[in-house]
Design a protein that fits this description.
The complex is a heterodimer of chains A (415) and B (460).
Chain A: H1 17-20, H2 22-33, E1 39-44, H3 51-65, E2 69-74, H4 79-92, H5 101-117, E3 124-128, H6 139-142, E4 145-149, H7 159-169, E5 174-177, E6 190-192, H8 209-218, E7 227-231, H9 240-251, E8 257-262, H10 270-282, E9 288-292, H11 298-307, E10 310-313, H12 322-329, E11 334-337, H13 342-345, E12 353-355, H14 358-370, H15 372-389, H16 392-405, E13 412-414
Parallel strand pairs in A: 1-2, 1-3, 3-4, 4-5, 5-6, 7-8, 7-10, 8-9, 10-11, 11-12
Chain B: H1 2-10, H2 12-46, H3 51-78, H4 83-117, H5 121-124, H6 127-149, H7 155-171, H8 175-188, E1 196-199, E2 204-210, E3 214-218, E4 224-228, H9 229-234, E5 237-239, E6 251-267, H10 270-278, H11 282-295, H12 306-313, H13 318-325, H14 335-352, E7 365-381, H15 384-393, H16 396-409, H17 416-425, H18 428-435, H19 444-459
The chains are: A alpha/beta (415), B alpha+beta (460).
Chain lengths: 415, 460
C-alpha cells in the first residue's frame, strides 16, 4: 500500500499571511506545536479525482509546514467494490439504491483485505467518506484515536445504508460533517467543519484584465453587457433549465446575457442529456451562452467569475456548493437557493440573496442588476465572510482543533 | 682660544644680529601670546561654545614654542652661515615647527572627540578608535609635508595611500552607509536607547542598543530585531519615547480558537425551540448568542443572536425576532441568566400567539455548541504603550477571548483588559471606560479600534 507523502503544494503557509494576517498563521503554528508529537494518517479511496483528494492535496502539505506529521494513504478495491461504494454514496444522498447483502459482504471483505495490507501507523486515523469506514473495526485491536470525515450530505440518507454505516460510525471517537443539517443524532461527538477554497489556487487567484479579456473573447461573450453566470456541471440538481427560465424573465426588462458554464461527468450518463436540454432551451437566444468547459480549466472559470455582474447558484439540492464561496471571494453579488451548505455561505440580505423558486431568482437578479451599490455591498460582505470562514487556512485550523479535541473532552481546553 | 676671541672681536656683529633677531622674535612671541590670549579669553567668556576653552588650553604653550622656532629660523636666515647649512637648519626648524603643530592638532582633536562623543552612547565605545584615526591621519599628512620639506618624493606614497584607501572603501562598501547613517542617527539624537519606536515597515519595540552598523530593538513578542542603520534612516519612524508606568505584573495575551460541535438536536417550531433551550448547556447558549458576531464580524450592527435570525427568517415571527434581537448579552451577568431571558421572551410570545408554524423543509434550527482551545500568545504588555501596540497586532480571536469569553463564559465578571488596568496599573478610571464599552454594538475590528483610541487618549 503506497503512501502519498511526496505531494507538494505550490503555496507555502506563509504565502497566506498577506490574506489572513501574520497573527493568524502564528496561531496555526501554535496549534501545530501542540500536535508535533502525533502522526495523523488520512485514509480515503483515491489520490486523484474528486473533492476529497483535491482538499487533501492542498491541505496535507500545509499541515506538514506547521510541523505536524500528517500523511495520506488510500485503500484499494476492485471495480465491483467501487460500484458498491458509489451506490452507498448515492444512498447517503437519499437516492434509492438496490444494495444487496452480497454487496455488503463484498464491502466487508474488501475492507478486511485492506486492513491486512494497510499499515495503520497513525496516532490519529482520519478516515474520509464511506469507502474505508469499516477499517474502524481495527480499533479494538490497535487502539489509537479515530475520526470519520463525512463529505457527503447525510441529511436524508437511505435508512438501510445509514444503519449499516451507523454500526461503524459509533466506534469512532468523533465524526465530522460539512453542514449542520448533514449531521445525525449520534452518541459520539460530531464536529462541524465546512470545506474551503484556496485563495492562491488558479481558480481563485487574482487575474489580470488581459487574461479575463482573452477568455471572454475566446468564448465570444459580449464584454459590454451585464453578465449573469452559473458555474456548475450539467446536472438536473443544478437546474440549468430553471436558470434559463429565470434569465428570460429578467431579460424582458434588462439588457443582459446569461452564461451557463460547466462540464459533463463521465460517471453521470444524464449529464449529456441535461446539456442537450439546456442547449435546446437556449437555442435562438443570442444572449444565452451554454459553455462546455473542459476539466482543469480553472483559469477560465476564474476569469468568467471575475467578469460576471451577478453569479447565480440555483441548485435544487447541493452538497456544500463551494462555487458560491468562489464567487463571494471575488466580491460578486450572489443569488442562490437556500439548500445544503449554501445557507452557511449566503446569509440572506447580508452576503447575498437566497431564493426558493424561479420567480424568486428572477426577482433577486433584477434587484442586483439595477442596484449596483447594494450589489457591491453584498459582494464586499461576501468577500469578508469567505475570508473569515471558508478559506483553506480556516480548514487547517479546524482540523488541528479536531485532532486536539480527541485528547481533551472538555468544552474549554487550556494548552 | 685667542684666535676665537680675536674672531669674535672682529665679527661680533655677525653673532649679535642673529641673537638679537632670535630674542626679538621670542619677546614678540611672549607679548603676542599675552595679547592674543587675553583676546581669546574675552571671546571665550562671550562664546557659548565650550570648545573655546579647549582651544586656549591646547595652544597656550605651543604658541610660544612656535615663536622660539620662528626666532631660530630668522636667526639662521640673517646669519652668515653657508647657504647649504642655512638650508639644512631651515628644514630642521620647519620640521620641528610642523611636529609641534601636529602635536597641538592631535591634542585638540582628542579633547574635542572626548568632550563631544562621551555624551553620545553610540560613539562612547568608539572614542579610542576615533582618536587613533585622527592621530594616524595627522601623522600621515604631517609626514608627507616633512618629506616635501626635505625634498624627498611624495607622489609614490600618496598613490600608495590612495590605493589603500580605495581598497578599504571597496571592502567596506556595504558597511560604510550603515556607519554614515549610524553617525547621523546618533548625532541627531532623534532616537535613543530605551525609546519605543515603530517603523513603517511594521517593526516595533524598545531600542536596546544603537551601534555603528545597526539598531537593535526588542519586540513585544520578546524577540530581538536588528535593523541596519541604512534601513532605519530611510524609513518613517514613530518614536513614542520612554516607557510608561510599568504594571505590577504584565498582561499576557491569550487567544482562543473555536471548534463547532454539532449536537444533533434541532427545532422546527417555537415549542421545540423553547424546550431544547431549557436543556441547553452554557456552551450552546454561548455559541448561538456570539456566533453571528464572530462569523460576520465585518457587519455593523450585527444581528444579535442566531435565535432572533431564525424566528424571523425561517418562521416569519418578526415581532419575536425583534424582541430576541433586542436582548443585549452585555446586560446579563451569566449565560444562565441570558438563557432564562431568551426562554422567557419566547414563552411569553407563544402565550399570546398560538400559531406555532413550522420551519420550511431544510431550515430547522440546529443546536451547536462551541468548544474552545485557549492558547498563550507570545505577546506581553508591561505598560499601556505596549498594550496599545499589541492590541494592533493580535487576532480578533484574542480580543474575543479577553472581552467576551472572559466575562460570560469564564465567569470573570469583567473583561480581562479592565481587570489588568485596574489591578496592575491602578488606573480605575481607564479600567471603567473599557468596562463600560458595550462590545456587542461594535464589529470586532471596531471594538479593537475603540479600545486603542480610549487607551491612547488616556495615555496622551
Amino acid at each position: 500500500m503506497e503512501e502519498n507523502n511526496n505531494k507538494q503544494s505550490k503555496s507555502k503557509i506563509q504565502d497566506y499571511e498577506p490574506i489572513v494576517g501574520r497573527s493568524y498563521i502564528e496561531e496555526l503554528r501554535m496549534l501545530g506545536d501542540n500536535l508535533n508529537n502525533k502522526v495523523i494518517q488520512n485514509i480515503n479511496s483515491t489520490y486523484v479525482g474528486g473533492g476529497v483528494a483535491e482538499i487533501l492535496d492542498h491541505l496535507v502539505p500545509l499541515v506538514n509546514q506547521l510541523g505536524v506529521d500528517m500523511r495520506w494513504d488510500v485503500i484499494h478495491g476492485n471495480n465491483e467494490f467501487f460500484t458498491i461504494t458509489k451506490k452507498i454514496h448515492n444512498a447517503i444522498h437519499g437516492v434509492q439504491e438496490n444494495i444487496t447483502s452480497d454487496d455488503f459482504d463484498l464491502f466487508m471483505e474488501t475492507t478486511r483485505q485492506n486492513a491486512r495490507n494497510l499499515k495503520l501507523y497513525g496516532d490519529i486515523i482520519f478516515v474520509h467518506d464511506p469507502q474505508p469506514i469499516a477499517l474502524v473495526d481495527q480499533k479494538e485491536r490497535i487502539g489509537r484515536k479515530w475520526a470519520w470525515r463525512c463529505h457527503i450530505d447525510a441529511s436524508s440518507p437511505d435508512e438501510t445504508v445509514w444503519n449499516f454505516l451507523h454500526r461503524f460510525i459509533i466506534h469512532y471517537d468523533a465524526a465530522v460533517f460539512s453542514a449542520p443539517n448533514f449531521a445525525r443524532q449520534l452518541t459520539i461527538p460530531q464536529f462541524l467543519i465546512s470545506p474551503s477554497i484556496d485563495p492562491l489556487s488558479d481558480k481563485n487567484k487574482e487575474l489580470s484584465a488581459e487574461i479575463i479579456h482573452s477568455v471572454l473573447s475566446r468564448y465570444k461573450l459580449n464584454q459590454d453587457k451585464p453578465m449573469i453566470l452559473q458555474v456548475s456541471r450539467f446536472d438536473r440538481l443544478k437546474d440549468p433549465v430553471g436558470v434559463i427560465a429565470a434569465f428570460e424573465m429578467v431579460r424582458k426588462n434588462i439588457d443582459c446575457q446569461l452564461v451557463l458554464a460547466g462540464g459533463t461527468a463521465t460517471d453521470d450518463p444524464e449529464s449529456e442529456e441535461v446539456l442537450k436540454e439546456a442547449q435546446d432551451r437556449a437555442s435562438g437566444n443570442s444572449d444565452i451562452h451554454v459553455l462546455l468547459i473542459p476539466p482543469g480549466s480553472d483559469i477560465e472559470i476564474n476569469a468568467l467569475q471575475r467578469a460576471a455582474t451577478v453569479i447565480l447558484q440555483k441548485s435544487i439540492k447541493e452538497g456544500f456548493g463551494l462555487t458560491v464561496s468562489e464567487a463571494l471571494w471575488k466580491k460578486k453579488p450572489v443569488v442562490a437557493t437556500g439548500v445544503g451548505g449554501i445557507t452557511l455561505q449566503v446569509k440572506h440580505k447580508f452576503t447575498g440573496l437566497l431564493c426558493h423558486s424561479i420567480e424568486g431568482a428572477a426577482y433577486s437578479l433584477r434587484q442586483l442588476l439595477t442596484n449596483k451599490e447594494y450589489a457591491n455591498w453584498l459582494g464586499q460582505n461576501g468577500h469578508q465572510h469567505v475570508k473569515q470562514n471558508f478559506l483553506i487556512t480556516r480548514h487547517v485550523k479546524d482540523y488541528l482543533l479536531l485532532f486536539l479535541s480527541l485528547y481533551y473532552p472538555d468544552d474549554v481546553i487550556y494548552l | 682660544m685667542t684666535e676665537l676671541i680675536q674672531w669674535l672681536f672682529n665679527n661680533w656683529l655677525l653673532i649679535v644680529i642673529p641673537v638679537l633677531t632670535f630674542l626679538t622674535a621670542y619677546i614678540v612671541g611672549i607679548w603676542l601670546r599675552r595679547k592674543s590670549f587675553d583676546a581669546f579669553n574675552r571671546w571665550s567668556l562671550k562664546s557659548k561654545w565650550f570648545g573655546t576653552q579647549l582651544v586656549i588650553e591646547t595652544f597656550r604653550n605651543p604658541f610660544l614654542h612656535w615663536f622660539i622656532l620662528l626666532g631660530l629660523y630668522l636667526a639662521v636666515y640673517v646669519s652668515v652661515l653657508d647657504p647649504e647649512y642655512k638650508l639644512i637648519a631651515g628644514r630642521i626648524v620647519s620640521t620641528l615647527f610642523l611636529i609641534s603643530i601636529m602635536l597641538a592638532i592631535i591634542t585638540l582633536c582628542e579633547k574635542l572627540i572626548k568632550f563631544y562623543l562621551t555624551k553620545r552612547e553610540l560613539f562612547r565605545a568608539q572614542i579610542p578608535l576615533m582618536v587613533n584615526i585622527v592621530r594616524v591621519t595627522v601623522i600621515i599628512v604631517g609626514l608627507l609635508i616633512i618629506l616635501d620639506i626635505w625634498g624627498m618624493p611624495t607622489t609614490p606614497l600618496i598613490l600608495l595611500l590612495a590605493a589603500a584607501l580605495l581598497v578599504a572603501v571597496f571592502a567596506l562598501r556595504d558597511t560604510l552607509p550603515n556607519l554614515f547613517y549610524g553617525a547621523n542617527i546618533a548625532w541627531s539624537e532623534q532616537i535613543k536607547k530605551g525609546d519605543f519606536i515603530e517603523t513603517e515597515t511594521g517593526e516595533s519595540g524598545y531600542i536596546t542598543a544603537l551601534n555603528w552598523r545597526n539598531t537593535e530593538i526588542k519586540t513585544l513578542e520578546g524577540s530581538l530585531t536588528i535593523i541596519p542603520n541604512t534601513v532605519l534612516a530611510r524609513t518613517r519612524v514613530i518614536n513614542y519615547g520612554h516607557p510608561l508606568k510599568k504594571a505590577s505584573s504584565p498582561f499576557h495575551f491569550y487567544t482562543r480558537l473555536t471548534s463547532k460541535q454539532l449536537t444533533g438536536l434541532k427545532a422546527n417550531n417555537l415549542q421545540e425551540l423553547a424546550e431544547l433551550l431549557k436543556g441547553a448547556s452554557e456552551s450552546i447558549i454561548y455559541y448561538h448568542t456570539h456566533n453571528f458576531l464572530e462569523e460576520h464580524n465585518y457587519l455593523t450592527p450585527e444581528p444579535a443572536n442566531d435565535f432572533a435570525l431564525w424566528v424571523s427568517d425561517s418562521l416569519g415571527h418578526e415581532i419575536l425576532g425583534e424582541r430576541l434581537a433586542s436582548i443585549d448579552a452585555f446586560d446579563y451577568p451569566s449565560l444562565d441568566a441570558l438563557k432564562m431571558r431568551l426562554i422567557g421572551v419566547i414563552t411569553d410570545y407563544m402565550a399570546h400567539n398560538p400559531d406555532d408554524r413550522r420551519a420550511p423543509s431544510g431550515e430547522a434550527f440546529h443546536f451547536i455548541r462551541s468548544k474552545i482551545v485557549i492558547l498563550p500568545t507570545s505577546y506581553i504588555a508591561h505598560d499601556l504603550r505596549e498594550f496599545i501596540e499589541v492590541m494592533k497586532k493580535i487576532t480578533i480571536d484574542s480580543i474575543f477571548y479577553h472581552i467576551f469569553e472572559a466575562r460570560l463564559r469564564l465567569k470573570k465578571g469583567s473583561n480581562d483588559f479592565s481587570a489588568w488596568i485596574e489591578d496592575c496599573l491602578g488606573d480605575k478610571d481607564l479600567a471603567n471606560k473599557i468596562a463600560h464599552l458595550d462590545p456587542y454594538t461594535y464589529t470586532l475590528e471596531g471594538l479593537r479600534s475603540n479600545i486603542i483610541e480610549i487607551v491612547e487618549k488616556h495615555t496622551l
